[in-house]
Amino acid sequence: MKIFLVGNWKLNPETLAKAKNLFDGIEKNFKKIPEAFKKEEIVLCPPFLYLSEIKNLILKSRLKVHLGAQNCFFEEKGAFTGEISPKMLKSLGVKYVILGHSERRKIFGETDEVINKKVLAVLEEKLIPILCVGETKKEAGSWKREDGRMKEIERQLKNALKGISNSSFQLQNSLVVAYEPVWAIGTKNPCDPESAKKVLVFLRKFLKEIPILYGGSVNSKNAKDYIKVGFNGLLVGGASLDAKEFVKIAREIVL
Ligand code: PGA
User: Fold this and answer.
1) Domain 3-254, what architecture?
2) Residues catalogued as catalytic
3) What percent of the chain clears pLDDT 90, i.e. is strictly above it?
4) Among 39, 51, 170, 244, which has the highest number of CB atoms less than 10 A from its own CB?
5) For ligand 1, which residues put their CB under 6 angstroms from it?
6) pLDDT (tens digit, 9 = 90+) per residue, 196-245?
7) Among residues 206, 214, 255, which one has the least CA distance to residue 233?
8) What residues contact residue 8 under an 8 Å CB cut-off, 6+ apart?
9) What are the boundaries of each domain within the chain?
10) Cα 5 vs. chain centroid, distance in angstroms?
């Protein structure tokens, strides 16, 4: 299975000029790495407003990267002020959409039901959801008994995928799942790879051939450890805003 490296820029950088600079930096640094990397899947997820511009830069460059959005709405059109539809994203050349990120769940109050509607809408448009699941420290309950953590993850996964038969998404190769322990996101406190592996094994029972990524305080020093325990790639936040570090992560996990 190919390796995924997904950069989630979140609400960054502050201006379009800085976003273009970040892309230029990534392109420049990728030029230094061998062809071998080209078969892997690199995905950049800038804010909505920068998608077109980054797409143009991708087209002009010889870099093989794909475009992802960080969110979308589930309706196709209509009176939904401020929203963006999967179809709109598709028309800009977007391939992936991050859904169910813990920041959306927590700060914007997205429920399992809303996330499920978004997953269905994104699949309908033949875009690929990168579905995030993960527990808070509180939800995890006792770390000795893993059941609190697994129950939370199972609930998020099953509710997000309600109405989708296993065979349909597996055949289409149309879903990516990211395990992102909430307490590890943006904290410089990554989940221990062996502990993350327990969730990977648990998720694998349900997800069969679906790529499963790890996310949460990934950097170039720890990136390889998650691939070694069996993850199919990484979802990177903070470190994806530093072009050199992002490409270093790429090099670490592929070569
Ligand atoms: P982080 O974010 O790498 O900054 O921890 C990961 C994410 O939120 O996807």
Assistant:
1) Alpha-Beta Barrel (3.20)
2) 101, 180
3) 82
4) 51
5) 8, 180, 185-186, 215-218, 235-239
6) 999 999 999 989 889 999 999 999 999 999 999 999 999 999 999 999 99
7) 214
8) 45, 70, 98, 101, 215, 235, 236, 237, 240
9) 3-254
10) 8
